[in-house]
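Suppose you are handed only these lines of text.
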Amino acid sequence: MSINEEVNKRKTFAIISHPDAGKTTLTEKLLLFGNLIRSAGTVKGKKSGKFATSDWMEIEKQRGISVTSSVMNFPYMGHQVNILDTPGHEDFSEDTYRTLTAVDSVVMIIDATKGIEAQTIKLFKVCRMRGIPIFTFINKLDREGRPPLELLEEIEEVLDIETYPMNWPVGMGKRFLGIFDRHGKQFVRFNGNEDETYIPYQDLDKPENQDLVQNSTFQETEDELALLDEAGDQYSLDAVLRGEQTPIFFGSALAPFGVQTFFDTFISMAPAPTARKSTEGLISPDNPEFSGFVFKIQANMNPAHRDRVAFLRVCSGKFERGMSVKLARTDKPIKLSQSQQFVASSRDTIEEAYAGDIIGIYDPNAYRIGDTLIEGKESFEYDELPQFPPELFKKVTAKNVMKAKQFKKGIEQLVQEGAIQLFRGSNDESYIIGAVGELQYEVFEYRMKNEYNVEVMLESIGERIPRWLKTEQVDRTMFDERNLLVKDREGEYLALFKNDFSLRWFKDKHPDIELVDLFEVN
Ligand code: G4P
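From them, the structure of the protein bound to guanosine-5',3'-tetraphosphate can be written out as follows.
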């Protein structure tokens, strides 16, 4: 098979959602389609309880589980499906965001009983700024949720994206009868117990379907559908692929209902890998020479061996185990002998991979997040990964002042690796660490101690809203504890606002100072 044919088979996506919307449940159903697992309930042991923050081995165990299941791949309907996990809950970190730089599309799950929730908004923004196509699955239709039209309105308003319902539910909870599959022009009838019947629209008139058609909930929904046909957005695959319209699917991951219809349609519409931006212009995925970039580094997966695995997204050509490539940043050759792919709960050695695939490569402490690896003579680097706005901030100091040198070295290296973000106090040059999730601090503390032999003290500054200041002159008197002035690694000033109120207050008081939100500029 040619490289082009291999690439076009690939469907690489991530599932994003707020905790408890049903990501694990839906993922399990998809893995069942791929015959990757035999029964539901085997994807991750997240119900095994919270880990004690001090116990790294426990974190490892937890992380180990989520790492090995962090990329799942299987063949489906002639395609090669790659699902990337986006760690949530207590695992939420910058890695969760960075995973989104390695996918070609995203499935966003929304809980029909709750609508849009906080974590969904954050992850959505990252997809938005990168123009990633987003497919929406509105879950838990087997429960009494919010009216479908209201949910659509909320998605359009809060996320500012056009919606196009690919299907439309008839009833919810106990009254749930099934869905109109607008795309497949059929009614999918819910018979309970994992049983669905597919009735083409033209067969709805048949006598055996009269009980359904005469049902008042069915008839009300027909009116709703007519309204949607008239007043709703027009379906446009182009708009979907540009990330401007999201196709909406209703269903229940648990029942399960509508999952097959959703997945089949999604797989047929989702984009295969496309060209990626580099310092030498766009690089096509069927470019014969191998290239890829590192989007995540997992350190200390096995504390006994101190090994590190770099997760690489293949962007062009063909990867072959043992091949020699070049690390673009240093121009040095590297042999990729230990490579892995991750399937559910085991790690298999991988022999070859194509654009769209994710592979884990052994990291001899050589890689940084965002690094480009290339085969052949060409020289280019893929676009730098964006910096994501941290939300949690802590002041850090070494417990033992005699360890200042190791302390600085450790922080510098971990910052370079992308494990944390570093800021400096504008007055006292104190070290302030920014992170997206609490887990990053746990990993930071552990690694400082184990790799650099420095015990650190962390003092929380709390959750903050960071805004970069676009101004020539910074007047320090404008800032205090509520809008703490700090500098980033490049020496750019930013203010860490205590809450929305202090942000608004500052804006009102200083309308001439432009405040930049990283989510909007990346
Ligand atoms: P997450 O990975 O997004 O955090 O969500 P997960 O799949 O773990 O689902 C969270 C809870 O919601 C689980 O219940 C799960 O069974 C339930 N759930 C998922 N999909 C559906 C659905 O379509 N309908 C209904 N009614 N419930 C759904 P739990 O009680 O927290 O856990 P469990 O003990 O049932 O596993």
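What can we learn from it? The CA atoms of residues 74 and 370 lie 26 Å apart. Residues 39-60, 63-69 have pLDDT under 50 and may be disordered.
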